[in-house]
Amino acid sequence: MTNIECIDLPPLMSARGTVRLPGSKSISNRVLLLAALAEGKTEVRDLLHSDDTDRMLEGLQMLGVKIESLGNNAYSVTGCGGDFPVKDAVLFLGNAGTAFRPLTAALALSGGSYTLSGVARMHERPIGDLVVALRQLGANIDYLGNDNFPPLHIHPAKLTGDTTQVRGDVSSQFLTALLMALPLLKRTVTVEVIGELISKPYIEITLAMMARFGVIVQRDGWQRFTLTSGSRYVSPGVIYVEGDASSASYFLAAGAIGGGPVRVEGVGRSSIQGDVRFAEALALMGAQIEMGENWIEARAPLSGKLQAIDMDCNHIPDAAMTLAVAALYAGGTTTLRNIASWRVKETDRIAAMATELRKVGATVEEGADYIKVTGFGIQDSGFRDTAEVLPHPASCILHPEIDTYDDHRMAMCFSLTTFGLEGVRINDPGCVAKTFPDYFAAFANITNPVPVIAIDGPSASGKGTVAQRVATELGFHYLDSGALYRLLATAAQRDGIALEDEAALVALAGCIDIRFDGEKIWLDGELVGDELRSERSGAAASKIAALYGVRAALLDKQRAFRRSPGLVTDGRDMASVVFPDAVLKIFLTASAEARAERRYKQLKEKGMDANIAPLLQEIKARDERDTRRSAAPLQQTSGASLLDTTDLNIDQAVNSVLTDYRRLTP
Asked: Which pLDDT tens digit goes with each residue over 603-659?
């Protein structure tokens, strides 16, 4: 990574808990615009706080609409009755399609001179079909860049048309924008939809919101919509914004993949949002779903294994992205069809999903309007008990870096890939601010990472022996982090690389192959013997461990050992740097004299020459180096328990660690 903000997510064991959803983006921006167009004052409660709603609020205020924050995500909006006070304005709307499209229609039919622009991606998202429909009503709109794309300049115009047509197979936002703006014409107007209308549930949201503000749209199926003369928006007084059903999909999927139960509050069987039907899709995959008026709950299948599905996703276009990631954990190949609208969202979501899913080991086929995903499945025991997954394909990358394309839904979807993986890195996690700024904190609150016990301490303190014994007792994986530095030093000496040559050491760290199997260790396919435990090897390891670049190069290799059902690791900075979220942190030490005597006995038992005096001198010298080094100095980190083993035997030390762990994780 080069200067890109990221978040590293650990591998997860399970998911359980309750999430209160933020307000729906789709409903929030519809309500804000309708309140601005209405007569009277509207109090909007539970509004989503996000980039998209911020752009709408800013835009309306620049148009002269009086908006007052009441605190706690509530706003008072004084409507202008369809006549914006400001008739000449320049609006920047970021990448907020739910603000850009409806404001384009409202301003084109309200009279005035307006310029609308956004970020580069917004200028790549088509708007030509909406402009064509507005021009049929007499609107005067110019493209300021490429034809059919923003930015736009809207001029005052004589609006005479009473019938218009709009394509329905590109984006439902075009029809939504027209419908919400048409009451401004104060006459009977009809909209005809050309082709199949996609994302019908979003149109149902629009019609329901318009009805709350007193405008009833007459429709003939999904092809013809009529607003009668005299239609006008009137404030309902107080209106609440439902929780975001699209955002609910990530937590429901977490419950289905990670055991559950996970409950989302803010949407339920009475929701007007089509994406609540994501729960039905999860049920088809085998998940256990329960639903109330204002909540939905998901658990893993009774069999413990999700099943592949073949589904037309026209009714849940945004939430269908979550199904593509859930397919990783299903047996067989999942096919999601009728998703052409993904191509014109915040990014080309079909291409982006295909690219990123392949990074985590999926086999993916993409087409113009479909995607097929074959994942790696779940063992029959499922996540309900062991949370173990089948091994990933050989091509699977440890700690894959997920690119998010400035698309909030990409970032949120791929948080789910951490169930069973060795963790992932999400690039540009801040993009979730578009709809769910606190997403990663909410996700962490309902998920349980693979547990880590981190045991740090000075050389010869016995931490390696204790860590190995604890790992065996718990059935966890074990990582001797010091061995990684010894192996790198050994490889460097083998290849004639100086231990001061940081750049060469970093390059070597990236290409050496290290494998552990119990007490056996392989370096580039060759079994390494007891020489790895020699004082010469330890001194070389201590020297290269002081280099920032080397420590950074080995960081991902160390974190890759974190796998279900858990990890016990020992070293110098396991609790402070490598696994700062370790469930148990121990700083294990002993007097220098006790450590020298233990090292002496250890070497003698292996038939190696040893002398206590130089061993004690070397231990004290190494303590000095390790404590004073600038890169991850040896110290008891915050939250770590001190365990002095000077007067303890191994069994006592092991029992102390096990007692602490079981107390923390009953």
From this structure: 777 777 777 888 888 888 877 777 777 666 778 888 999 999 999 999 999 999 999
Measure Cα distances from 504 to 165, 532, 536 in Å: 65, 21, 21
CA pair distance 470, 476, nearest whole angstrom: 8
* HSE-CB of 293 using CA atoms within 13 angstroms: 0
**Cα dihedral: 624, 628, 634, 640 (round 10):** 120
- Three-state SS for 49? coil
Pinpoint the alpha helices (H) of 7-144.
25-37, 51-62, 97-108, 128-136
φ/ψ of 603, rounded to 5, equals -65, -40
Catalytic sites, residue numbers: 318
> By CB neighbour count within 10 A (0-12 exposed, 13-18 middle, 19+ buried), where does 120 fall?
exposed
| CA proximity to 241, closest of 45, 459, 10 | 45
Alpha helix ranges (H) inside 234-366: 245-258, 278-284, 320-326, 349-359
**163-167 and 189-194 as β-strands: parallel, antiparallel, unpaired?**
parallel
pTM: 0.79
Give the up-direction half-sphere exposure of residue 496: CA atoms within 13 A in the CB hemisphere.
0
Neighbours of 42 (CB within 10 A): 25
Task: Enumerate domains of the chain plus CATH numbers.
Answer: 6-21+243-449 (3.65.10.10), 25-240 (3.65.10.10), 452-664 (3.40.50.300)
The residues, any chain, with a CB within 8 Å of residue 545's CB and separated by 6 or more, are 485, 551, 572, 626, 629, 631, 632
Q: Which residues pair with 567 in a beta bridge?
A: 452, 477
- Residue 333: in which H helix or E strand, if any? strand 333-337
Which tokens belong to 358?
A: 């392949």
C-alpha 57 chain-centroid distance:
26
